[in-house]
Amino acid sequence: MNHRNDKTPLGAHKQILCRGGFKTRPAAYRLASFKCRSVGARHVVPSPFFLAFFDASIAASWRFNIFFSRFIFLLVLLLALPSAAQDATSEPLPAPPSDIEHILVISLDGARPDAIQQANAPVLQHLAAEGAVDWNAQTVELSVTLPAHSSMLTGLSVEEHGVTYNDMPPDCPPIEASTFLTLASDAGFSTAMVVGKEKFCIYVQREAVDYTFAREGDRSVADRVIELLQTDPPEVIFAHFPNPDYFGHSTGWMSETYINELNSTDFQVGRILDELANLNLLETTLVIITADHGGHDTGHGTTLPEDMTIPWIAYGAGITPGTELSGITIADTTATVLWALGLPVPESDASRPITEAFTQEPT
Ligand SMILES: [Zn+2]
């Protein structure tokens, strides 16, 4: 399935996997456990006491059998009620928006939300003001690049995806848990990753996902994303900007240089947004901007709020402008992308789709 040249909204492919149920899920789902949250079946299990009661009834007369079958019906109903009430509390997910044709996820490595707010960062501040934002989103403990990006890209906790290392492993084997790019690719969407650190090779799970290591920093990342947009815009793009982390380590988080350099990163993000506008893709693209971690002094990796707090901004197609969000964690990024694509969301307590950022469509 290739949607590269058509203008079919992503909505047209929605719910296919959910409707098909677990039997049709792609092999990639074996790597990580997934479920369709909107499809919830619960079985009522009779208690042993009830079963003994039922056995006794078999020996009784037909009148008693009628009595018992009514009794059984009522009992089953009573047993089912608490279950039904429980189901009602885990509400089914709303339908994803129908006007999204492209999704662009941008990770600003080591970008502190308070630094974005202190810098002019006109592009990022515009996206936050005209989109949905949580300036107090949280990354995972082990607030370093690979564990945190693994949660951002898989929707799983560190325990679940198992990436506890931060250096590029020898031969760079891909991680086991599927990223949203792999899952989207397997479901037939065109996908691309542009990253600014070589060690992101651990996320290369499919040849079908176009992969670029842009080795010259933020500008080269933006260059490559713009090139992809101009040639054959992928439906799902992940772009990683490395500079904020680099300047945090070299000059200190919240130093003048670090904050000024965030404006340069902001400019590069703006170049991509301008290109989307030039190509008339802005209105049909969902943009999510976040970070893997913050930092303090010249490092990060602790559980300090300075290291743990990240921005989370959603803008564009489907998003209700001016929405203030709260309680977001880094892994919610994947759940939101998969939900927006109409794909099953991760079966993990670590993530949920941020549906409250989106305008509910009339059913
Ligand atoms: Zn770092």
Topology:
Layout: H1 16-20, E1 34-35, H2 48-58, H3 62-89, E2 102-108, H4 113-118, H5 122-130, E3 132-138, H6 145-154, H7 158-161, H8 180-186, E4 191-195, E5 210-213, H9 217-231, E6 236-241, H10 243-251, H11 256-278, E7 285-290, H12 305-308, E8 309-316, E9 323-324, H13 332-340, E10 345-346
Parallel strand pairs: 2-6, 2-7, 3-9, 4-5, 4-6
Antiparallel strand pairs: 1-10, 3-8, 7-8
This protein binds zinc ion.
Zinc ion (ZN) binds next to α10.
Largest sheet: 8 strands, mixed
Share in β-strands: 5-15%
The largest sheet has its strands arranged as 5-4-6-2-7-8-3-9
Tell me the overall shape.
globular
Mean pLDDT: 83
What labels describe this entry?
363 residues; alpha/beta; 2 domains; 8-stranded mixed β-sheet; two-stranded antiparallel ribbon; disordered N terminus; binds zinc ion
Quick gist of this model?
By secondary structure, the chain is α/β, with parallel strands linked by helices. It has helices spanning 16-20, 48-58, 62-89, 113-118, 122-130, 145-154, 158-161, 180-186, 217-231, 243-251, 256-278, 305-308, 332-340; strands at 34-35, 102-108, 132-138, 191-195, 210-213, 236-241, 285-290, 309-316, 323-324, 345-346. Helix content is 39%, strand content 13%.
How does this model look, in words?
The protein is an alpha/beta fold and 363 residues long. It has two domains: 10-89; 102-357, Alkaline Phosphatase, subunit A, CATH 3.40.720.10. It has helices at 16-20, 48-58, 62-89, 113-118, 122-130, 145-154, 158-161, 180-186, 217-231, 243-251, 256-278, 305-308, 332-340; strands at 34-35, 102-108, 132-138, 191-195, 210-213, 236-241, 285-290, 309-316, 323-324, 345-346. The strands form two sheets. It has an eight-stranded mixed beta sheet, sandwiched between helices. A two-stranded antiparallel sheet has the order 1-10. Helix 6 runs parallel beside helix 13 (332-340), helix 9 packs parallel to helix 11 (256-278) and helix 10 packs antiparallel against helix 11. The protein binds zinc ion (ZN). Zinc ion is lined by residues 110, 145, 245, 249, 300. The site of zinc ion has 5 residues, from helix 10.
